[in-house]
Amino acid sequence: MTSATDDIWGRLMAAAQRGEAAPYRRLLGELRPWLVRYFGRRLPPSQVEDAVQETLMAIHAKRHTYDPDRLFGPWLAGIARYKWIDRLRGQARHAADELPESLAVDDHESSVTSAHVLTALLATLKPAQAEVIRLVKLDGLSIEEAAARTGQSESLVKVNIHRGLGHLARVLEAQADAD
Amino acid sequence: MPTDFHRADPLIDALVADLAPVRPRRWWREAALLAGAVVVEAFMVAEIFGMRPTTADALMAPAFMWKTASLTLVAIIGAAAALLSLDPAVTGGRRIRWLWGALALLLPVALAAGWLIDAGAAGSEALLHRLDWRAGLGCVRHVVMTALPMLLVLAVVIRRGAPTNPERTAAAAGLAAAGLSAAGFVLSCPHDDPLYVAVWYGLAVALITGVSRLLLPRLIRW
Prior knowledge:
heterodimer, A: 179 residues, mainly alpha, elongated, B: 222 residues, disordered N terminus
């Protein structure tokens, strides 16, 4: 993001805060692809669309917390990051949920960029945790398949997904924003 | 600006349709609201419990100044951290990291200062007598009771904000509420013994902060 983009989005949001619909529509229209890219790098493909919509709704609900005298980028990044961590946490709570059959990988170039930030983060986990998260959450294997592939029991697969994602969420929350 | 080149998006349509003017939040408005709540509560406490019988000398004593200054600092830093953490742009950055650091440092420093004052006071009475646990529990109950309304005011303010680290915001809010009510209670509590203050006020502040840290995140998630 360049500061010029920040400025434009900031001005659009300032207009939206005054209740002007046209700048707001343009802002949301431009934010959507940005968010698709943001979450595409950080979440399993099947979760990206949900995360984008949830974040757009959060931006709407919390638009009064944007300070029009400051840059828009950090504000947006703070909200997107919060929603990302929240989702990793939710994933940890639903460790056993498998990906739906149809991996909703649509037009955005997610086959190339798919979740690479998340993949890089997995390297910081214990190998047993990282492996099952990759298999179940990113590659779409079932719990049973992941268990057969790794030699971990099914319940251990679930525990490792739960602990690994929970750990990631905590680490991310603790560190200052590096994006 | 035409919207033709964006895919038709029902969510964006709905959000645009829901758009109403909002007033950008300002931390100083919230700080003023908080200050107002403190004043109201101080008057109510003074009305109900009365002021402690005191002299100018007692108010100038190191122990009394230590107690008042420490609790006021806890309240101010806690409230500042809680309010500043409501802006997603600020929480992500490094700007308020020093505030969390100050919060973490303050308690040990305050206790050490109290211990120094205590060492100079040459207290010869028995420890249990100094602790005076009956009065102490009364103080704890009083601080907790007056902190809860403050915490409620803070919770309302926080819910309107956008805390991106709800656990930290909740802990800071707990410290702020406990610090504010304890700092106010200084006016009616006749105990200045640093040991007494450290144990009972410390217990009350820890209780409120713990409760806030446990319960508030559920209320302020968004």
